[in-house]
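Supplementary notes for students who missed Thursday's class. We covered one full example, reproduced here. Read the sequence, then the structure, then the short commentary at the end.
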Amino acid sequence: MHLSGIDYAIVIVYFIIVLGVGFSIAKQARNNLDQYFLGGNKIKWYFLGLSNASGMFDISGVMWTVTLLFVYGLKSAWIPWLWPVWNQVFVMIFLAVWIRRSNVMTGASWILTRFSGRGGFLSKNIIIVFAVIGAIGFIAYFFEGIGKFCAAIFPWDLTLQNQILSISSENAYALIIVGITTLYTLRGGMMSVVATEVFQYIIMTISSIAIAVIAFNAVNHSEIINSVPKGWEELFFGWKMDLDWSGILPQLNEKITTDGFEWIGALFMMMLFKGFFSSLAGPVPGYDMQRLLSTKTPLEAAKMSGFTIAVLFSPRYLMIASFAVLAIVFLTPDMATNPQIDFETILPIAIANFIPSGLKGLLLAGLMAAFMGTFAAVINAAPAYIANDLLKNSLLPGKKEKTYVRFGYLSSFLLVVIGVFFGFFADSLNAITLWITASLYGGYTAANVLKWVWWRFNGYGYFWGMLAGLLASTVKLIFFVDWIDIYFFPVIFAFSILGCIIGSYFSSPDNIEVLKSFYKNVNPWGFWKPVLFEVQKDDPTFLPNRMFGKDMFNVMTGIIWQMALVVWPIFLMIKKWDALALSLTVVAITSILLKYFWYEPLKKEVY
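Structure (token representation):
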């Protein structure tokens, strides 16, 4: 890729600014764990929302989603339900409030507000293990994405090969960017992450609008339709994708088969099944959870989650759709003659071909900002579990706060090293994405649903359920490599449920005082009648949560709202005007419904 002097200048200035922000804020976080990992609960909720959105605007995800849209068209808007992306909706509607009421630092500390005794101790430790494994998986995912991106856009070949060491150019670039990001994150903690991510979000939004203007003026609807197979512009589907690229880009038919998305009807039902339970489980111990716990109040936690959805999806998909349509119209003929094309590099190839000097530098800075923001969020969140929960509260109590912050530094560094090691052996973004979302998170789901809704579920059940899920996901990774991860989810879920039930019924219920405290403070809906009875003995005025029906209505409304925010930029860029008008109408209607049925009651009930 040809980069001009101004492009290099913009990228260099960006890195200087980011490092400067990180180091300037470092003094505020250096001596206190709460300041380092939560920003002292003083950060405004809308800054946390922008930070959360920036953290999800990652370069690996953008590269993956551009490829999905290029290959699968409008139907690709459903595929991110694999995560599921609408877990943010569940968090926004009710889980943010439930989680934030705990007033703790991490998900592991939160567990001790629900479980007691030896079972609580085991539950806390299994959450720490999960947080570490999840962070390592995400670091490998980010490492793979940034390496491919930088090797495709920068002109220098950084391959290092001798008798002792062999590093590809992709991995060399990834090591450089990972090193810079780790440096400013270690120094500044949560305050540094949020400050840089807000700045990064602004760059990404400007970049998204700029590339959208270029793409909108460069292509028309007929050019797009003539370059894709029949059904590409259709949002809805039957049992199969029914996309035949044979006469245009035959290599894609093999990719569709390899990805495992051909039978989209069955896939969709599996995503709904997994998505409901995974979303109800709540955020995994990572940057999502950390931002919720960083807010000032439960109400602000809910507002932050809703704001994340509102500001994330439209600019993100504006960029994704712009690059996808440019690649479809102008790059497809060249791709057809290259049987070795890596379709996960469509994004940097499109940048090289269509973005003018100056804007190219801004866009590259923005995309690297997206990577750095998400990566920073991960390596700031997971070490909190090691420094606070494992060391401060278990293995090394009684030390100075500064000591635990330093352990946080060391934990971050070691997690990055291990994650980078696994990143060297990653086959593709798609493979890592599917394993994290379907297999690893599958092991998290059952235990973390039951903790909300069933009083008899205890710490031993949580530990054995989580352990069974983790072991099942590891078995899948090692012995069932060729299985599509999402279809293995019911197996992992079943093993985890079995562990939960056996662990709970082969041990005593948790301490009733802990259960009463949790239930009265959080007040979840579900099967809590014996605990409710005990709470009402002490406080006859206490009322159980009967909001399940209303919450589910708001969740359904929120999912539709979120989906409309995803698809309207795509309709805009392919110039399908009737669908664009309909999607914007849906955004407006669902926004009104959420205001009156979610936000207004929330303000009255939660403080």
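Commentary. The CA atoms of residues 21 and 192 lie 7 Å apart. DSSP finds 25 helices and two strands in the chain. If anything here is unclear, bring it to office hours.
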